[in-house]
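Late entry, evening session. Most of the bench is empty. Finally got around to the prediction I had been postponing all week. Sequence below, unchanged from the version circulated by S.P.
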Amino acid sequence: MIVKQFHLESLGHASYFIGAEETGEALVLDIRRDVSPYLDEARRLGMNIAYAIETHQHNDYVTGICELANRVSVQCLAGKHANVGYDARSMSDGERLTMGEVVFQILHTPGHTPEHISVLVTDRSRGEEPVLLLSGGALLVGDVARPDLLGGTEEAAKHAETMCKMLQEKILTLPDYVEVYPTHVSGSLCGGNIGSRLSTTIGYERRMNPVLADLDQKDRFVKQCLDLEHLPGVPPYWPRMRKMNTDGPPILGSLPEPPALQPDQFERQQQAGAIIVDCRQAEAFSTHIPGALNVGLGSSFATWAGTVVPADSSVLLVLDKPDDL
């Protein structure tokens, strides 16, 4: 079995390429919008991406599952409660998918979102016991994913109660040696205290995760999950992302590189209503074009740009140098 993690630091996101050496097939989980890294990896290994699956309808980024299905012949999978708008095979709690020596078992793990699933993976070339859990947001490194994204305080409390029961009955019943590979990693706004490592184990989290210490006291667990002092603010574009991911994002295909503009072309587009995003650092922004928004290039650029730029706007970028594009 081949396991490859793709880490997107700017979003605190991790996606996964799981390959079966017996059959040359691969499954990709929680796909980023730019699917070229998975296609490059499949090409490098001489493998065929046969399946693609999302653990939940994400709020924090646009999924690339439809993009991938448009590029290669792949069967999309979804948890039974997902109700996605794109063509996908529905997978029930406990259902298994075999791909050569690799066996995937779907676990319905609600809490972060109602439809959330995790995927338990067994490598039969090593034995019949599960070896890793693709946990999405059900269990993070040193944390769990926030349950407050889909409603007010009352609904969030219900989701936290659901998560408490799910962790006790589904996640922490697994052996200590099972490796855990989450989708939300350090830098993600889906958790308030996510550790810096990109993976963990059931045993380590059972012993060291402070959120799990209150599992046997439901009220304390719920209170901790809803403690807004340690949870970052929710960007305004997140509800739009969830709806887009549920319906199925539009296909991008290949995107042409934006052309450099002469000053008169730039001014005409500004007058037509385009938003100017000045990507230079604050020192350079001191001499900026009137009306420009300063979102300096860095690890949080995507989040801040999505926060301050209205949806579906035409955008003009101001850069220090062409390589910044």
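Two things to note before I forget:
Residues 2-247 form a domain with the Metallo-beta-lactamase; Chain A fold (CATH 3.60.15.10).
The chain has two domains: 2-247, 263-324.
Will write this up properly tomorrow.
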